[in-house]
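FAQ

Q: What does a record look like?
A: Structure on top, sequence underneath. For example:
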C-alpha cells in the first residue's frame, strides 16, 4: 500500500497491539508543496495502523461537525470508538454567535447516542490561542462537558494548554469524573503528580520525543505503568525523527519505543500496559482491526 508524497515511511511493527487513544482521522494534514493538505481515507488509515499493530483508535471530535463525524465513523468501524466535544477554542466563537448553549445540547445528545461513543472530549482550557476575553466561555463550556461526561458515564478527555492551575481548579470544583484522560500531557513531573492524585490517566503524544521536552520525559518517569496512555493527535505532533511531517496512527510505534526506553521497560511490556490501560480508561469490548 503506497501513500502519496508527504507521509513518512511506516516504522517496524510493535510486538503487541496498542491503541491510538486520540486521533483526528477527518483532519487534513499540512504538507509542504501539497495544495489542500493530505488526508488518508479511513479504511486505508485503519489498515496501515493495523499493519504495525495499532489495532484500535479513539476518534475525537472538536466541533459539532467533527463530533457527528466521529459518531458516524465509530458506528461504521468496529475498531473505532468516538469522543465528542467542543474544543476549548471553539467555545468563545460559539458564544459570540449566541450558539454555545445549543451546541452543548447537541454534544449532550451525541454523548448518549450509543455504546460506540466512549468519551466526552476534547474539552478543557486553552490559554495559548484564546485570550482573556474568551476565558469565561471556555470555563462555562468545560464545566458543562464535565457534567455531560458524568451524566452519561463517559470518559472525560481534557485539552490543557498553558492552563494547568485553572484546569485543576475547575475539576476540583465540579468533581473529577470516574475516568479522566489528560490528552497530550504537557506538564512537568509536579503537574503529573497533581493529575495522578485526581485519578487521571496521562496520555503521551509524539511531543515526548522532542529534544526540548525533558519535562515530559520526567513526567513519564514518575507515572505509574497503569496510568500511561499513548496517542498521535494526528495529523499533528509527529514524533521524531519525522517532526514537521504529517502524523498518522501508523507512526505510534516510534513513540511507544521511545517511551519504553524512558520508562525502563521492554517494548512488549509497554504495549501491554498501554492496551490494558486503554480498556480501563475507555472501556473494553471493542474489536481490534487485523
Amino acid at each position: 500500500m503506497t501513500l502519496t508524497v508527504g507521509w513518512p515511511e511506516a516504522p517496524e511493527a510493535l510486538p503487541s497491539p496498542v491503541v491510538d487513544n486520540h486521533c483526528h482521522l477527518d483532519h487534513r494534514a499540512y504538507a509542504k508543496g501539497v495544495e489542500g493538505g493530505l488526508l488518508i481515507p479511513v479504511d486505508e488509515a485503519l489498515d496501515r495502523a493495523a499493519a504495525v499493530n495499532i489495532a484500535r483508535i479513539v476518534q475525537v471530535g472538536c466541533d459539532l461537525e467533527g463530533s457527528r463525524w466521529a459518531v458516524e465513523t465509530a458506528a461504521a468501524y468496529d475498531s473505532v470508538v468516538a469522543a465528542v466535544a467542543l474544543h476549548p477554542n471553539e467555545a468563545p466563537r460559539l458564544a459570540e454567535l449566541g450558539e454555545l448553549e445549543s451546541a452543548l445540547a447537541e454534544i449532550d445528545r451525541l454523548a448518549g447516542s450509543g455504546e460506540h461513543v466512549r468519551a466526552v472530549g476534547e474539552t478543557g482550557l486553552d490559554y495559548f490561542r484564546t485570550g482573556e476575553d474568551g476565558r469565561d466561555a471556555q470555563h462555562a463550556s468545560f464545566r458543562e462537558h464535565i457534567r455531560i461526561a458524568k451524566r452519561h458515564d463517559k470518559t472525560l478527555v481534557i485539552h490543557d494548554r498553558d492552563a494547568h492551575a485553572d484546569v485543576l481548579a475547575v475539576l476540583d470544583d465540579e468533581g473529577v469524573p470516574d475516568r479522566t484522560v489528560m490528552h497530550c500531557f504537557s506538564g512537568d513531573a509536579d503537574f503529573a503528580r497533581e493529575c495522578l492524585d485526581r485519578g487521571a490517566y496521562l496520555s503521551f503524544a509524539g511531543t515526548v520525543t522532542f529534544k526540548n521536552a525533558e519535562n515530559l520525559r520526567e513526567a513519564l518517569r514518575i507515572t505509574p505503568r497503569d496510568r500511561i496512555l499513548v496517542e498521535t493527535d494526528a495529523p499533528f505532533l509527529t514524533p521524531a525523527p519525522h517532526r514537521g511531517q504529517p502524523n498518522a496512527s501508523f507512526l505510534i510505534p516510534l513513540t511507544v519505543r521511545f517511551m519504553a526506553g524512558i520508562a525502563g521497560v521492554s517494548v512488549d511490556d509497554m504495549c501491554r500496559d498501554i492496551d490494558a490501560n486503554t480498556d480501563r480508561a475507555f472501556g473494553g469490548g471493542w474489536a481490534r482491526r487485523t
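Q: Is there anything notable about this one?
A: The chain is about 40% helix and 15% strand.
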